[in-house]
Design goal:
With 411 residues, this protein is an alpha+beta fold. The protein is built from 14 helices and twelve strands. Strands 1, 2, 3, 4, 5, 6, 7, 8, 9, 10, 11 and 12 form a twelve-stranded mixed beta sheet that branches.
Length: 411
């Protein structure tokens, strides 16, 4: 402990002797720390916000649409329509073990929805309760989503997208009130909680009307689904899972499982894999830029420590003459280097934290996110600082330790 205190006293003495040079060196470490922390924090915030935006449609979601065959198969010709029906949902769920949740979906866009004189044309979706989990649809306080009893009894109830509710009811609470879907009255049981959604199919959820699938089929006389929505248990195996789904439907409807036009699938997990690789490369690039800035500060530290060694050569010789070992000399100068790094990096972290907090007040979160100092950012910054400190302190310290006693005393 006394050795550390002695080193600290000598460090303070050197600071006083080289005030301007030390201040500029510490500033280099401060600036480098600020650069790497803010750049990495910005990259992490951007990644998190884009993930939130993308997951507005749901996490690891795949959507299946009916199509037409483009390849002959087992005596069947091309251009055959391949439908999707509610029994296909149960078939896929039982025969593809990697499917986590699945829902049928009926869809109409040409039917008007009316409340008094307010008439709009939202998308009308006929679904089952698990659809809310798949698509990240949460009911605002005071309301609820479609439940199993609604589906079983074919109830005429609806949950409205938040924008649909605003256009129909304005500021009035719509829960318990009637809306007319075409000429059929439905009771509003919920309004969707507002969410960020930068990808969709057909319409965004804010512009939809959700009703039980059985009610939809009864009211509109539909038998074929518009699409099937599902999630996978393992996003990394999503592509293989989609192949299994096509194989199951191919056996039922007699089409080539490799014929992707027979059943078109939009697999959002593929975009998640791309974004993972993209942001990994993006954050590495940001880290490299910040590391270069910090490396410049490290050169300044190494430079001032070489000067300190030169000015204290006689002192080093006296210490060696009275029994100090090489490792004692190395440790002394290495710790002084780490004091400079610690001082600069601590101030840099405080400044970087202030910058990130200030940037969070700027209304850009929905577009590029807000910088976020996470555990990953702190660990990467600490690792870079450790490497810079090791390289900046070790070389001057080794030079000091390798000086001979005679040369030191002669100086």
């Amino acid at each position: 402990m006394s050795g550390v205190l002695n080193t600290l006293r000598e460090f303070i003495r050197d600071l006083r002797a080289q005030k301007l040079r030390t201040a500029l060196t510490v500033f280099g470490i401060i600036w480098g720390t600020v650069a790497i922390v803010v750049l990495l924090a910005f990259g992490m915030g951007f990644k998190k916000q884009l993930s939130i935006n993308m997951h507005g449609i749901g996490e690891s979601v795949a959507i299946l649409w009916p199509g037409r065959t483009t390849k002959p198969w087992q005596g069947f010709g091309v251009d055959r329509p391949i439908p999707l029906r509610e029994e296909d949902v149960r078939l896929i769920m039982t025969q593809v073990p990697d499917v986590k949740e699945i829902s049928p979906e009926y869809m109409r866009n040409e039917t008007s929805v009316r409340v008094g004189e307010n008439i709009i044309n939202p998308a009308i979706s006929g679904i089952i309760p698990v659809y809310a989990n798949i698509r990240n649809i949460i009911a605002a306080p005071g309301g609820r989503f479609i439940n199993d009893l609604d589906v079983k009894e074919r109830r005429r109830v609806t949950m409205l997208g938040d924008e649909t509710a605003r256009l129909l009811f304005g500021e009035t609470d719509p829960i318990g009130r009637l809306v007319y879907v075409g000429a059929v009255p439905f009771t509003v049981i919920g309004v969707m909680q507002k969410k960020i959604q930068n990808s969709s199919y057909n319409r965004r959820d804010a512009d939809r009307v959700f009703i039980p699938s059985t009610t939809f089929a009864a009211v509109f006389g539909e038998s074929g689904l518009s699409n099937i929505v599902l999630t996978t248990k393992d996003p990394m195996r999503s592509e293989a899972t989609m192949e299994d789904v096509r194989a199951v439907l191919g056996r039922k409807y007699k089409f080539d499982p490799a014929d992707k036009d027979a059943v078109f699938i939009w697999n959002t997990a593929e975009m998640e894999e791309f974004l993972f690789v993209f942001f990994l490369a993006f954050n590495i690039f940001m880290g490299i830029i910040g590391s270069f800035t910090l490396a410049v500060g490290g050169l300044g530290v190494a430079n001032i420590m070489y000067i300190v060694v030169q000015e204290r050569t006689r002192e080093i010789g006296i210490k060696r003459a009275v029994g100090a070992r090489k490792r004692d000399i190395i440790m002394q100068f290495f710790m002084e280097t780490m004091f400079i790094i610690l001082l600069g990096s601590s101030v840099g972290f405080v400044i970087a934290y202030g910058i990130t907090q200030a940037l969070q007040q700027i209304p850009i979160r929905e577009f590029v996110g807000a910088p976020e100092i996470s555990i990953e950012v702190a660990l990467v910054t600490a690792a870079v600082l450790a490497v810079v400190g090791l390289l900046a302190g070790l070389m001057p310290a080794r030079r000091a330790a390798n000086l001979t006693i005679v040369d030191c005393l002669r100086t």
